[in-house]
């Protein structure tokens, strides 16, 4: 089973940025724990701060992979283009967020991508990604 984890803008700073919200573990370190926990899966990871690159990656794998788990970061609330990319592919997509976006600033309460994803997971820290993987299994 091939699953791609996609992280959007500023998530390359996990472990350094706003540790009170996002924790002190880098995503690279967390990803290694996922690979160890799920050796039977073909897990890959992609991060970009650029909207078009995220769209290109969704298009690239969206017909061949078994699942995509996406944390689109701030693009969650602003990107009709990422929403359209998700809607345009056959691969099921799970939206994840490290924090509970509904308890944060009002502008973070609406997800443009959530309605075109098969599900959304938020508020469980980095474990949200593991829960996303479990939902695909």
Helical percentage:
25-40%
Distance between the termini: 9 Å
Write out the strand line-up for the largest beta sheet, numbering strands in chain order.
2-1-3-4-5
> How many discrete structural domains?
1
Beta-strand content estimate: 15-25%
- Indicate the mean pLDDT: 92
The main sheet comes to: 5 strands, parallel
The CATH topology annotation reads as: Rossmann fold
Q: Give the H and E element order.
A: EHHEHEHEEH
Number of strands: 5
Rg from Cα: 14 Å
CATH homologous superfamily identity = Dehydroquinase, class II
Taken from the alpha-carbon principal axes, the silhouette is globular
Strand-pairing-aware structural class = alpha/beta
Number of helices: 5
Structure write-up:
The protein has a single domain, classed as Dehydroquinase, class II (Rossmann fold, 3-Layer(aba) Sandwich). Helices cover 32% and strands 19% of the residues. The protein has helices at 19-22, 27-37, 51-61, 80-87, 127-136, and strands spanning 2-7, 42-47, 67-71, 93-97, 119-122. Strands 2-1-3-4-5 form a 5-stranded parallel β-sheet, sandwiched between helices. α4 links the parallel β3 and β4 (93-97).
Labels describing this entry:
alpha/beta; 137 residues; Rossmann fold; globular; five-stranded parallel sheet
What is the compact description of this entry?
This protein has 137 residues and is α/β, with parallel strands linked by helices. The protein has helices spanning 19-22, 27-37, 51-61, 80-87, 127-136, and strands spanning 2-7, 42-47, 67-71, 93-97, 119-122. The chain has a single domain, classed as Rossmann fold (3-Layer(aba) Sandwich), CATH 3.40.50.9100.
């Amino acid at each position: 089973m091939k699953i791609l984890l996609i992280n959007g803008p500023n998530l390359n700073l996990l472990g350094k940025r706003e540790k009170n919200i996002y924790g002190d573990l880098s995503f690279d370190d967390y990803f290694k724990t996922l690979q160890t926990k799920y050796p039977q899966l073909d897990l890959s990871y992609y991060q970009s701060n650029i909207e078009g690159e995220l769209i290109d990656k969704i298009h690239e794998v969206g017909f061949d992979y078994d699942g995509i788990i996406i944390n689109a970061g701030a693009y969650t609330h602003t990107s009709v283009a990422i929403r359209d990319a998700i809607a345009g592919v056959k691969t099921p997509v799970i939206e994840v967020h490290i924090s509970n976006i509904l308890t944060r600033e009002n502008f973070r309460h609406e997800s443009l991508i959530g309605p075109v994803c098969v599900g959304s997971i938020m508020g469980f820290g980095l474990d949200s990604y593991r829960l996303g993987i479990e939902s695909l299994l």
